[in-house]
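Reading a protein record of the kind used here takes only a little practice. These numbers are not coordinates but entries in a learned vocabulary of local backbone shapes. Here is one such record, which you should read through line by line.
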Amino acid sequence: MSTIYLDMDGVIADFFGGIAQKHGVGHWKSIRHKQDLINSIRYTDFFYQLKPFETSRALVNRVKQVAEDNNMQWGICSTPLEGDYNNSAYWKRMWLLNRKWMPSVDQCIFTDCKPDFAWSPITGKPNILIDDKPENIMKWNQAGGIGIRYQANEDDLEDYLFPEIDDAVIRSYHNG
């Protein structure tokens, strides 16, 4: 059984907006010292405080429905903060629970090696990842999965992402 995974930061949680707000700047890229940015959120509940995007509920609901309609699973595949693995993963889980978006525990993955989950070891079929980072999508695809690049603050949910999800589900049945 294949899985449709959602990344969190940049897809359903406004990580960069939260960073900008925390540092009192209009855009996170205006923060001069990026290491200060990381250090400022380590060992805090920063990930729990993030706001969802306006489209997040619709996206989660759509992914759940598509998974159910196609005998698939849905899940989360998100990277924890470097140097703060357990704490950031904990607060990400709490963020999901608070919104009632927590998938089954075995489908809630926090890893810095997403390509390890690019295909189902049971069926040999590709899994689908929706992620905002082109590098993650490239590595996911190279590992045999089907990646969809989506950035919630830039891409359209209805006109772009939903058709991409539908296409990826069809491709997942024909691969593997």
User: Anything to note?
Assistant: Strands lie at 3-6, 73-78, 108-110, 128-131, 146-149. The chain has one domain: 3-15+50-174.
